[in-house]
Amino acid sequence: MVGYAFMGKAHSVGWRMAHRAFDLPLRPEMRAIVGRDRAGVTAAADEFGWDSVETDWRTLLTRDDIDVVDICTPGDTHAEIAIAALDAGKHVLCEKPLANSVSEAEQMVAAAERAAARGVQAMCGFNYRRLPATALARQWIAEGRLGRIYHVRAQYLQDWIADPQSPMVWRLDKNRAGSGALGDIGAHIVDLTQYLMGEQLTGVSGITTTFVPTRPLADGSGTGQVTVDDAAVFVGRFPGGALASYEATRFAVGRKNSLRLEINGERGSLAFDLESLNDLWWYDNADPATEAGFRRILVTEPEHPYAGAWWPPGHGIGYEHSFVHEMADFVTGIATGRPASPTFAEALRVQQVLDAVERSAAAGSGWQQLS
Amino acid sequence: MVGYAFMGKAHSVGWRMAHRAFDLPLRPEMRAIVGRDRAGVTAAADEFGWDSVETDWRTLLTRDDIDVVDICTPGDTHAEIAIAALDAGKHVLCEKPLANSVSEAEQMVAAAERAAARGVQAMCGFNYRRLPATALARQWIAEGRLGRIYHVRAQYLQDWIADPQSPMVWRLDKNRAGSGALGDIGAHIVDLTQYLMGEQLTGVSGITTTFVPTRPLADGSGTGQVTVDDAAVFVGRFPGGALASYEATRFAVGRKNSLRLEINGERGSLAFDLESLNDLWWYDNADPATEAGFRRILVTEPEHPYAGAWWPPGHGIGYEHSFVHEMADFVTGIATGRPASPTFAEALRVQQVLDAVERSAAAGSGWQQLS
Amino acid sequence: MVGYAFMGKAHSVGWRMAHRAFDLPLRPEMRAIVGRDRAGVTAAADEFGWDSVETDWRTLLTRDDIDVVDICTPGDTHAEIAIAALDAGKHVLCEKPLANSVSEAEQMVAAAERAAARGVQAMCGFNYRRLPATALARQWIAEGRLGRIYHVRAQYLQDWIADPQSPMVWRLDKNRAGSGALGDIGAHIVDLTQYLMGEQLTGVSGITTTFVPTRPLADGSGTGQVTVDDAAVFVGRFPGGALASYEATRFAVGRKNSLRLEINGERGSLAFDLESLNDLWWYDNADPATEAGFRRILVTEPEHPYAGAWWPPGHGIGYEHSFVHEMADFVTGIATGRPASPTFAEALRVQQVLDAVERSAAAGSGWQQLS
Amino acid sequence: MVGYAFMGKAHSVGWRMAHRAFDLPLRPEMRAIVGRDRAGVTAAADEFGWDSVETDWRTLLTRDDIDVVDICTPGDTHAEIAIAALDAGKHVLCEKPLANSVSEAEQMVAAAERAAARGVQAMCGFNYRRLPATALARQWIAEGRLGRIYHVRAQYLQDWIADPQSPMVWRLDKNRAGSGALGDIGAHIVDLTQYLMGEQLTGVSGITTTFVPTRPLADGSGTGQVTVDDAAVFVGRFPGGALASYEATRFAVGRKNSLRLEINGERGSLAFDLESLNDLWWYDNADPATEAGFRRILVTEPEHPYAGAWWPPGHGIGYEHSFVHEMADFVTGIATGRPASPTFAEALRVQQVLDAVERSAAAGSGWQQLS
């Protein structure tokens, strides 16, 4: 695994727990963790439970005991590491967003295709597909339970930099992060809605803004320029005619991690909020009017996706379980030769949508058609 | 009062109750109700409690016992009636939307200005400004309790024509209704957000759609063409930099009358849903992080706007109370000579925004600047 | 109508609106309001819309233009007024609780039986039976939709005297009010649960407490003794085997008017909270486990009890509508000769339950069997 | 660890994760798991990650590499194993309820006291004390933030045997389980409320019932007798004057794991529901009436109890994290010599309360004073 910050910690739980919760055909071994700072990565290896440390990710590619490279670094390094790893024959799990630009993402897709020809797999880590509630929603939509879909409404609301005095960090630097709220959390809702719909957006229009353009540097040495968006709002269309609306922001004061979805179809509607991740709300339009209402389904029944691996009904799971499921699916994909989604090609599509939003915002919010 | 359908009934409750709930300087008398069908309007007069009936609204203008004309008819007749009534020296309360087009609305504003010079008042019936929860929100925003505002998020979701077999009605005919979801319910959220912000949108961009273009005629004689939008999604900007997103639809299956608002400011956030109209949710960013959370305020305390006229804390009010408050404020405006808002000029501004959304939708969702 | 405080105001709305909202066989006329203080009652007559005033309720009994006496006074006067009115041939609507003691209530039942023989009706004003949500719940339970019922859980939580410095009022004086939270709001949940179940409690056990035994007098002249309970918690059994739990308190800080019900049956469960009075929550145990959940039914559909008289789906009603429904049902009962419930006999049963709770509390919480 | 069913699995996660999430002075090693069926326990060891298996728990007591015995077996075996283990010098973590009878529990307390004299620790596994939300509630009550407490309201609602055809299991056999809903889930709410209050109940009164007295045997060989309660409702008093009400049931259809608490104090109120375990609701009575309301605190801030070990704000945790926290606290207690609560003596107190409820139920719900 490359990287040992927040995502490194979450992925480590995923790797440690996957074969405990699920009966996997292969059992992951946590062989090596990589970081440039030897002291830091050594402490992380101890805390997270990795067998060895490396300070250069390239070393992993030469180690025979490494089959999988898991990339948890900032977006500007994804392409280089992923392409090299795939070309070296290592299966790759890459954190989202896939890359900081469409062109990098395209190169990664090409590498993934080369690798696939040799049986080497690549997957992008959109973990929110892998909650019981979202997976159940996907299943029901695919089965046609919502009928024709009219509306997709998606918001990812956070507030961690709403305070103008909150300091400059790498995620606010376009060179490192690629984009701001749009690429970091907007990517999640674009991926998740395309996944749920089983369709890809055909066009978008939107606006972005940077509310706080300069921020104090963390070391007190002055101020830094915020070069990414603080928030983006955009609309889109799906091939089947559904209207979609999106909002991604780090300035929704009071919303800590509120990824909200609502999908309205002719036969029913679904709603979800990540701040209550064990719940899925379902309105069944087949119910008589006098009995109909949005019902709160606790997605904790043994028959629900992933839930059977955990606890009895009503005993909820938490955020990191999405990573346990991700690792389980990825490992199963490797073992069976049937790669788990999202592939790099699917992740590229997300990148293209984000890119189209940025182009629309730069062009007076004009419509950007997606091929 | 002209018109005796749904709005006529709601306004009648308003007129009957206003001076019971509030200590008004003038006491409204319910003198006459107008409808073209004598039998129908006579029954309505009896049911709603009006003293007399007329079959031609022009007659009202000649009656000395009529001081106020309340217009509850479809939008295509608003301009003619309102202008004639104002020119005849009658105070006018006109249901929203003000008119079916900007040019009609402009003529109405001109008539209102002429009338104002003679002490005759005109007001537009955006009743949702007059719920305790929305009025409290306005008060707090005006006081600066939210600080700089980052986000405005407004949706008005209904589902009454989501069934493609639901028959053709006048609200789906552009000639009668002017527009569809956009003008009917989108008008409410545009007015409400501009009212809450104390600012007017500087530009918008959006898309609209008609999901079901033909519908059965109610009399079984064939099908009719739906000539209005079924749904609209749009984004906008406020002068202070806030990003706004809007959605108006009659196809949100399961949402019966869900006008939802959320406003995120630097110092706090507010949220509201018309389906729970006695509640206002407030996040106070001054609270320590460990204690902060969205709190559900029951807006039923005697100190809350309008609420003191009603019941003890926790005893909620209903939809029609918004009309009681509207009539009370309108009558107070007449009595005091200080007209209640929204004036026709404010309502024109709403019309201009809706018009800009339609132009944007027709022009590839390009940005439409509002002067 | 006798009395012009809070209940007098609420009942006045009921009398004014009942024939507007419903197509009644008789149209109520608001002839006279009674209060001992002429100035006060005159102002109330003007505000609430009554034609005349009286300062002695006995006068009503001699007036030929009075057919109905509506008693909204404190509980210690109910028996005298109701018995005299019934014996004088006036239909009587009496606010809950029926009386301050079982023996008074028994005399009232006897008077009601005498009156019934002459076609004169008597009803007790348990208004919360007459919300769309509670009426729907009753209908479903009567239809057997919940199957065998296991649990009844009822709480009526208020907080208006939780502050120990809140002054002494008549409701805290046993001589005037009969009892405290138990008789005032506990009566509502006992009546409502017996109504919903269609069964009467067979026994109870409970405890009561007075948290604040002395309070300042409102006139500043010293302190007064609180001689009623501040809170009561009790349990009971229904004939069909259901376990019931109850709590009535004025010390639940933050709960303004939270009458909460939950009923769990073999085939499904219902939940309700008066602070969101348009909602009924329903869990249908026939749903597959993967799809089951408590659903929020907006009880605003035209087919729902009472709701058809009001607004379109999703447009909620308020507290006072329960009185409009009460008056409509009472008037319909008189017109048709089929008295509306609750009769005085039913209200006596509530009194007997409250009395049994008090006896249990006085006797070490021992079980009190109800015949 | 002795036992490998549901609790064995949950405890295993706790042991595996505790030193990953927290910086512990000692690092647990998962040495041995015990079960009578060698094949079953071997599979569990592999799945849960234990180094070795034993088929007789007595063997653990002789192994020098075992410092801690974790007892996850049914309640009828707790006393024998715990006493032997403590006497053998092993620290003991025992699942709740402590025992099946007060006398067994008393013997366990005696053994724990003997052991304590030798520095050997004993703790009972009431894991719900160790959620961020409940731990925060405890902290605030201890700080006096609620002021004088008036009401404690606790319910533990499940529905897993509400179907009368659900088969007989050991938890319905008094000889194995000791009691039914009362001892299994009622124990949790008794412990939790006593913990939150920092006080012990001074008396109780209650009733219990068995709705379904016979059930089919799982092997199809006939029916078995249910010898425990299906539900219990009871009331109690705390020394400071608070009234408490309790309900424990397995027949609340639709409630899967709903442990609900509400505590009303003079200065504020707290509410919690285990089905939304990351939320704590707080009403601050110091807020002005116009601004006050129950606020939903997401107990996921780094300053919240336990939460700093996990994810950023808004990223919730799940059920099993309570066990991670339990193991972390237990290990810390051993390492520091300051035992974590609840001690066996505290757990005995819970047992005494449950016993008093049973005695009350058997004696016409008469009051049972607790010394």
Automatic annotation (TrEMBL), chains A, B, C, D:
Gene Ontology MF terms: nucleotide binding; oxidoreductase activity
InterPro entries documented for this protein: Gfo/Idh/MocA-like_OxRdtase_N, Gfo/Idh/MocA_oxidrdct_glycsds, GFO_IDH_MocA-like_dom, NAD(P)-bd_dom_sf
Annotated coiled-coil segments of the chain: none
Domain named Gfo/Idh/MocA-like oxidoreductase N-terminal: residues: 1-117
Domain GFO/IDH/MocA-like oxidoreductase stretches: 136-270
Record keywords, A-Z: Oxidoreductase
Entries under Pfam families matching the protein: GFO_IDH_MocA, GFO_IDH_MocA_C3
PANTHER family given in the database record: BCDNA.GH03377
Protein name: Gfo/Idh/MocA family oxidoreductase
Species of the source: Nakamurella aerolata
